[in-house]
Amino acid sequence: MFALSLLRIRSIWPYIVLSLCLWFIIIQSGIHPTIAGVVCAFCIPLRPNPSSGVSMAHTLEHKLHGPVVFIIMPIFALANAGLALTGLQTQDMIGTVPIGIALGLLVGKPLGVFGISYLAVKSNLCSLPSQAGWHHLLGVGFLTGIGFTMSLFIGNLAFPEGSLYTDGVRFGVLSGSILAAVIGYLYLNRSKQTTPTASG
Questions:
Q1: The pTM is what?
Q2: What are phi and psi of 89, to 5 degrees?
Q3: Other C-beta atoms lying within 10 Å of the C-beta of residue 50
Q4: Measured on CA atoms in the order 34, 102, 97, 79, is the torsion positive or negative?
Q5: What residues contact 64, with CB distance under 8 A and at least 6 apart?
Q6: How many Å from the N-terminal Cα to the C-terminal Cα in the chain?
Q7: Is residue 2 within 8 Å of residue 43, measured between CB atoms?
Q8: What is the pLDDT of residue 199?
């Protein structure tokens, strides 16, 4: 696929066939198949097609958006988010695992997003949108703490189904995500009347 990209092959079918082959081989090797998706994504051409002016990666992103958002993600969420409230113990709610996950979503992600964005703007690598200020960026940083599918996925990789921490992972993800959503909404709603400035 990398060679196809270098050769500027514009047909999507060779990439699809090779992606399916890679996916099958990785599953058979015992490695998690999501690795295949990451590798394939790196190989999809980003150069715009001379005839359409749009890259293959951009085209695929838009064509896959509907099926992923309305079919794949809901199925994944329903399959992995089941938190059994019956038998839920105190350690599942206030143990180190759920608290650590919740703090990672509620504190770590906003700090990371805001901090890296701040450094990038101050280093002149990019600039804030003309109608956005730092307080808007901080509010968006809180919203990035809404970690659902990927947080559950990573949690399930770290603590396999049936382990002592399964419910703690799910409770930490759900509680952290809900708090991040509420804080982000309230913060942005409070600051929406503030006149935005690119410098302040």
A1: 0.58
A2: -100, 165
A3: 8
A4: negative
A5: none
A6: 45
A7: yes
A8: 47
Helix (H) or strand (E) holding 111: helix 109-122
Max Cα distance, the chain (Å): 61
Q: Per-residue pLDDT tens for 86-145?
A: 566 676 677 888 899 899 999 999 999 999 999 999 999 888 888 888 888 899 999 998
Distance CA 54, CA 167 (A): 44
One-letter amino acid of 81: A
pLDDT of residue 116: 93
| Lowest-pLDDT range of 40-54, 87-101, 165-179 | 87-101
| 3-state SS class at 55 | strand
Q: Give the DSSP per-residue string, 128-180.
A: --TT--HHHHHHHHHHTT---HHHHHHHHHHS-TTSTTHHHHHHHHHHHHHHH
126's tokens: 């990019």
Using DSSP's 3-state secondary structure scheme, residue 125 falls into coil
Q: Could you tell me the pLDDT band of residue 72, with boundaries at 50, 70 and 90?
A: confident
> What pLDDT does 200 receive?
44
**Which among 29, 169, 54, 189 has a CA at the least distance from the CA of 101?**
169
